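call fold(seq) -> tokens
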Amino acid sequence: MQNELTTDEQQKQKAFNNEMLPHLDALYNFALRLTYDSTDAEDLVQESLVKAYRFFHSYEKGTNARAWLFRILRNSFINNYRKQSRQPQQIDYDEVSSFYETIRSEQSDTTDLEDKMYRDMMDDEVSKALSRLPEDFRTVVMLCDVEDFTYEEIANMLDVPIGTIRSRLHRGRNLLRQQIAKYAYRKGYSEEQG
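ret:
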């Protein structure tokens, strides 16, 4: 039994790869900022890509593929969060029983480059300040200021009016500015420069 793809399936794959895969890095970065865990971010991106492929027929070719993918990823993140918050926390007994031994055998200096880079990123005062923003503000600030989406694109992704996006962005930026004021001053920035 051969699992050869039909011509239509091959065309769908090619179109999907051309339209969606160029945005994979940006999608992963956004997922990482939402989850704060590289494994969870990878899972979220994979889940989002599967959903995007499944519903690729509803994507209008030539429109903003990046915004479409970000919307799918954000909705997946919210759905997963809601699902997890309704379930009681589960603990693997084998993990708990060997926890003490694992902690004792771990060394504080790791050679894993990704761990070092991620730890450095999380130690950054700006990233910490961004993570402390309420989710609605953090999401809008990240989509606008980090990912360079327009207000219209963000409003479409989040299903809220543009006025709400502007308001959240203004309030989010103000909260972020307050949190990093001392850091900015140490780096040589002042209120007059902004």
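The chain has twelve helices and no strands.
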